[in-house]
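Why does this matter for the project? Reviewers at the last site visit asked to see concrete outputs rather than summary tables. In response, this paragraph embeds two records directly. Each consists of the residue sequence and, immediately after it, the corresponding structure tokens. Nothing has been edited or filtered.
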Amino acid sequence: MNNIIETHNLSKIYNPDTVPVNAVNGVDLHIEEGEFTALVGPSGSGKTTLLNLIGGLDYPTTGDVKIDGVDITKMSENKLIDFRLHNIGFVFQAYNLIPVLTAAENIEFVMMMLKKTKQERDLRVRELLAEVGLTDKSKNRPTELSGGQQQRVAVARALASKPRFILADEPTANLDSKSTANLLDIMAKLNIEDKMTFIFSTHDQRVIDKARRIVTLVDGKIVSDTKQ
């Protein structure tokens, strides 16, 4: 298998000049194509910070992050924004949908930034809404959708650019059991059938039970890395 993601001696120190906090501390991590990986650990262990560093949402203090062999830590902000748009899909705990846009328009927005034609956008939106089971909700705005439905739109939006992998930060934290099960079934199907790579940060045992690799962090360090 090919490594999509490689981190080397990755560290992030907050407040270095006052009270330093080693949020991520010397992490070496390789993620292969097609993995379904959960980053777990207590609050403050560095899960979300590590996810943000992998996704180029934050710059490390030391070390590097390579995606398909490209070191994203050396990129300018503008190049990094473009790289994320083309290569990385994000799913957040708070959904982060644009409230004035419909479900279809939220998904389409990513492809507009990619300068896809209207025909390409319409086809991809239809495909993705069907994939997440929301064809009948295409014209609904976020406030007209349940939390689970909003998160499914967020997953569809993350897939819109056909990214190399998906980063999901506590994606089930605001969902009830039924919505969580539905969302995880969709993600697992995408992983198995489309070989889509997923990396979660999570406290949710339901997500952990679905994952095939568990990376445990404590105080910013990997303390175990197991496959199940």
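We now turn to the second protein, recorded in exactly the same manner.
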Amino acid sequence: MAQPAQQQDAPGTEKAMAPKPDHGEATYRGSQRLAGKIAIVTGGDSGIGKAIALAFGREGAHVAIGYLDEDEDARATAQLVEQAGKRAILVPGDLSDPANCRQLIARTVEEFGRVDVLVHNAAFQRTHESIEDISDEEWNQTLAVNLSAYFHLVKAAVPHMSSGSSIIATSSIQADNPSPTLLPYAATKAAIVNMTGSLAQLLGEKGIRANTVAPGPIWTPLIPSTMPEDKVQHFGEDVPWARAGQPSEVAPVFVMLASDEASYISGAVIAVTGGKPIL
């Protein structure tokens, strides 16, 4: 099912998208699976991050929402959490700067006293047909936001996490099936999987779990703001379900991994790809 051809300036906003993404606003029903937990979601202003924050709030968690500078979208996400009767705080900042990663953790601990769930979902990507078109600055930015921020966030959060806590990173089908036009992005997503495997072993003695979710083509502002119009129009048609997924179809996996039901799941990569297998 094709989307209308469209394009935005990065990082993109959901209000300019057609059709609008579904974050589960009208459909997600919580059952207190995360009651009382303190969660951090980076990239929580829109897309998958917004759906995660919504689901976490409806499952009973308080949520710290990290985002770049999309204030309007971030406030809308916070409102969804608050409508579920839970607290939400907004922490803007460019996570390519390690100081902003540490500030996000510090603000969360200042407000809530601890961290139970850390979701690193923020990501940066660009599409290029030639490696010569990838600037040094873009390469460094992609690694800083997608991968290095993951390291800095985890390092800062672990002292405030206890046994039973959960770290979840958003990887991608790109980690196993890289598109040539998304070289830096795909490389960081593969590294996230590898790093999560190390964390699962390193933090096991502390009782802290680490897992990744690997989405396939999901309809978020990242798509029309980083891909050519023709690719946007046919985005998602190459998976067996022949359509892009919605953020609401990814969030339940994060809920499961954040919950105590996943007490023996660590080091896993869970695919949400519309039927396209990952290795």
